[in-house]
Amino acid sequence: MTDPIVQKTMSGRAWAEMGVLSFVWGASFLAMQVALDEIGVASTVAHRVFWAAVALWGVILVRGIAVPRGARVWGAFLVMGVLNNVLPFGLMAWGLVHIESGLAAIFNAATALFGVLIAALFLADEKLTRRKLTGVGLGFAGVVLAIGVDSIRNFDLRSLAQLAVLAGTLCYALAGVWARRTLGHLPPQTAAAGMLTGAAVVMVPLAWMLDGAPRLDLGADTLFALGYVSLIATAGAFLLYYRVLAMAGSGNLMLVTLLVAPVAIVLGALVRDETLPPNAYAGFVLLAVGLVIIDGRVWKRMRG
User: Fold this and answer.
1) Per-residue pLDDT averaged across 162-184, rounded?
2) Taking CA atoms, which of 110, 141, 228, 255 is between 20 and 30 Å from 26?
3) Which of 180, 182, 194 is nearest to 118 (CA)?
4) CA distance 281 to 279
5) Distance set, CA 22 to CA 2, 11, 220, 237 (Å)
6) CA dist., res. 228 & res. 142, Å (int)
7) What pLDDT band is residue 1 in, cutting at 50, 70 and 90?
């Protein structure tokens, strides 16, 4: 069976838009940290999914895209919102309170590793080949290296925060399988808007219970950060993601996973004076090698 990862020749425009997408997602880790300086985890996530849903429904209304009406599809939206937004956004936001944004972005790259394993378990057309197993093994070795021996030996709040971010990437992988099984027949804009609506239905009342009523006295930095993560890094990034996917293919989009982490590391260092230990960089390099092997093109050239 052929590899289901779609690979296309990259145009200059595709490269440029993929670079923009990498920067947008890389900067989202810093923006989340800025918001978390003033408001709680639940409120940050609630703002992110609510305003992103509003923006995407506006796009759907302007484009005249049909709104789904069946109870089954809205139930699928709710599950997707929990798997792809509520849980990963919440886990990663809590993790960002205790670890550097650059380190969280490195762990975020593990989404592709979990994606390969989860897809092989639940999707018949996603076979776990020897090449993929090699890539996944190296990638997870990189994750362990990035966590560090001390964090594993002396388990503390920082160790738990790193595991929380990794748990978020597992949720992304599960969401990918759920989307293929239940939402593949919908336009991507509709699937994204419905998913975020489902997440908002959960997060808005939860944030009210945990953090109280929404505050009206937030600082300018917090408002800018919330606007960025909701309108640009979530709603806008979804629209840009599907544009790049159509131009570049899913195989080339894996490069975004590798580019997000360096963006987050540089921004964290420039804005918040973050420094990462050497093992974090070494782990990211090993993880990147694993992703390149999963991608397969370099592997095939070596065999050729």
Assistant:
1) 93
2) 141
3) 180
4) 5
5) 28, 17, 25, 9
6) 30
7) very low
Radius of gyration over every alpha carbon of the chain, rounded to an integer in angstroms: 19
Residues in the chain: 304
- The amino acid present at 55, given as its one-letter code, is A
Q: How far apart are CA 93 and CA 68, in angstroms?
A: 31
Q: How confident is the model at residue 3, as a pLDDT?
A: 41
- Report the alpha-carbon distance of residue 92 to residue 88 in Å, rounded: 6
Return the structure tokens found at 77: 């939206």
Q: Of 192, 245, 222, which Cα lies nearest the Cα of 85? A: 192
Which of 242, 232, 289 lies closest to 31, judged by CA? 232
Interatomic CA distance for residues 107 and 262, integer angstroms: 12
Place of tokens 């239940």: 182
Phi, psi of 155, deg, nearest 5: -70, 125
